[in-house]
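Let's practice the habit of predicting before peeking. Look at the sequence and jot down your guess about where helices and strands might fall. Then scroll down.
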Amino acid sequence: MVVAAGLHMYRDLEAEFRDEKKATLSVGANGPTAIVTEQDIATLPPPVQRYIRASGCLGKPRPAAVHVVFDAVMMRKPGGAGMPGVAEQIDRFDVPKRLFYMRSRMFGLPVKVLHNYEGHHASMLVRVASLFNVVDIHSDELARIETVTLLNDLAFFAPAWLVDRRLTWRPVDDRQADVTFTNGPHTITASLRFGDAGELVNFTSEDRGALQDDGSFKYVRWSTPMRTYREFDGQRVATEGDAIWHYPEGDFVYGRMKLKSYCAAR
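Done guessing? Here is the structure:
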């Protein structure tokens, strides 16, 4: 649920994020780190195979974790002022685990956002001036929604994991494939669209709800078009992109990102 609490001094969200980050990155891979081969991708839809080859994954181990930092601008509503900040996220697919932390300002006050998805559970906190939470959600519905976000991160930043057995693929055409991801009680679907050079250019899903002012989630199509691929330590990843809600009354670009750093820990 969403709460508007009275003044209360909480532990700093950045300190919580640092502790979670350290614990996430210090745990070794769950089992031996597998090398991705042509045999692994042979049964995938052709555009997914091309993407994995183009990304530079073949012949390398799947990363135990992916750590990215980017400049972000987030919008609370269409036409509203953007909230710029630096965002940091860490993803593991073996656990699975997703951490997202962002610093910004709202109405002149510092704002910190922390998403924590682990196993089958998820939480989201938005804290103003370390005094009160304007968003505090821990729910199964949020966990299902964050399962979509984890798959999105995986697709763009850890494509070697697209061979995982928890993913079920359905070919569509030479530029598109649909995928279903099951993690415990949560099953979600998405469509991946690929470009001329084999790169992933868009990810869409109907399973990610937009948080409303009353604390409920509204389900509309969600997409994250990405572009401007660059190489980081032999891995080609997208460095610019948007996050869009496709409402009946019109598209709402609520987030823009530009990658600052990328690290795949093996």
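How did you do? The chain has one domain: 13-265.
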